[in-house]
Amino acid sequence: MTVIPAMNKRIQVVILTILLLSFQQIYSQSTLVDTLSSSAEISVMTCEPGPQMYQSWGHSSIMVWDPVNRIEKIYNYGTFNFRTPNFYLKFARGKLLYMLSTESLEEFLRVYHYYNQTVQQQVLNLNQSQKQAIYEFLEDNMRPDKRFYRYDFLFDNCATRIQQGLENTLVDAASWTYPTPDPAVSFRDAIEGSITQKPWMDFGLDLILGLPTDAKMENQEYTFHPKYLYETLKHSTIMKEGKEVPLVKYESIAYQAYPTEDKKAFHLWPELFSVILALAYLIISWSLRNSPILPKIDGVLFTIIGLAGMVLLFMWVGTEHRVTKMNLNLLWLLPTHLIPAGYLLASRLPEWVRTYLLYSSILLGLLVLSWFFIPQDLPSAGLPLTILIGLRTIHQWQLHAPAPTES
After folding, report:
1. Would the pTM count as exceeding 0.70?
2. Which long-range CB contacts under 8 A does 343-348 form with residues at least 24 apart?
3. 236-261, pLDDT tens digit by residue?
4. If residue 11 lies in a helix (H) or strand (E), which one and from where to where?
């Protein structure tokens, strides 16, 4: 009867000892992580483009590694919460908040191993105070009131946030060397350079991205693209112990993609598709030139054109996306074509609508002549479609001409 209490006391002592040691370890870790050790390193991780649409331009993140304090954190500015209320509407309107999140290196690399994307690591050549400043900046950005931000495809994304953070913490110590291609490159050029093997995606972006995307990039604007951020860091310098040294101490491969068989799949390029579609439509409309169904077919075409234009107009005036403003594709994807579409489907066309058709066909003709000279880089696949829309518009104007009155 006296053995059980004795054993209980021993168990209690063991449990209390374990708890005290655990609290001591937790306390020691919490005090250590406030200050990085001299063995700590700050690295920028650059991920190559992947197969998914959102991976087409690669990705950038920043890592803090401190073996003494057992820190191995990836800071990622490119995350968002799918559970956000009205997620898709906020995403479409440019109101979705992105956030800074952290994960281990193993968790980070798991995704890129799955999609077979090479991850390059650039270890920065920093002194202790600079490492500490960057670490404190990142931890401060993790605060609930600071970690969320309004994402902007060109001016505020996972790459620009890293560059801005480095500029703010290194201040005058770093000398930045931004890419200077000749001739100068526009935002659209940089975007399209990463999706040459995705022609339909290229066509879609050329439709939805407006005139601001055609501006030539200058200085830090290049760093919106992870590839250019990598090049900027590679060629920049920093003052260290009174000497100007490379900003990147050394580079390594955090994950090397394995070689895969290059499967050359057949692509029906948008340019070829639009030519075939335009020719087929013109042939059909010619064969039905005397049929009462032709105006209704053109009514369906004008409806599609008008609805597409309404989408572009919404992306201009109804969203926060700066890259979709002032879209000159609205000169051929005319939202106003919904007006004659309704009358054609109803088999009647007032004279004022005929006047609209005349002036819009003149606009379309002028656009065709100036297609490659206007300031926005319009999709080449849109040219055959614009010719088609112009021909069908002028034909409906002629078809509904008032009958001549007898004298």
Report:
1. yes
2. 343/299, 344/295, 344/296, 344/298, 344/299, 344/302, 344/396, 345/296, 345/299, 345/300, 345/303, 347/292, 347/295, 347/296
3. 999 988 899 999 999 999 999 998 77
4. helix 3-32
Residue predicted with more confidence, 94 or 66? 66
User: Does position 20 have pLDDT exceeding 80, yes or no?
Assistant: no
Q: Which two tokens stand for residue 364?
A: 């379309």
Give the pLDDT mean for 50-63. 90
CA-to-CA distance for 374 and 341, rounded, in angstroms? 28
Tokens of 290: 């005397």
CB 165, CB 77: distance < 8 Å: no
> What residue has token string 């002036």?
359
Bridge-partner residues for 60, per DSSP?
46
Structural tokens at position 209: 């991205």
CA distance 30 to 17: 20
The better pLDDT of the pair 234, 290 is held by 234
Rounded CA separation 366/391 (Å): 13
- The answer to whether the beta carbons of residues 71 and 30 sit under 8 Å apart is no
Cα separation values, 319 from 85, 143, 311, Å = 17, 28, 11
Q: Which residues are paired to 72 by β-bridges?
A: 65
- Give the amino acid at 105: L
Q: Write down the pLDDT at residue 31.
A: 37
Q: What 3-state class would DSSP assign to 35?
A: coil
Strands (E), 170-314: 174-175, 237-240, 243-246, 248-255
Residue found by looking up tokens 């599609």 in the block: 304
For residues 222 and 154, give the distance between their C-alpha atoms in angstroms, rounded to a whole number.
Answer: 9
Distance CA 388, CA 382 (A): 10
Angle at 153 (CA atoms; ends 150, 158), nearest 5 degrees: 75
Sequence-separated (6 or more) residues with CB below 8 Å from residue 145: none
Residue 280 pLDDT level (bands cut at 50, 70, 90): very high
Q: How far apart are CA 183 and CA 180, in angstroms?
A: 8
What value does the mean pLDDT of the chain take? 88
Distance CA 271, CA 199 (A): 9
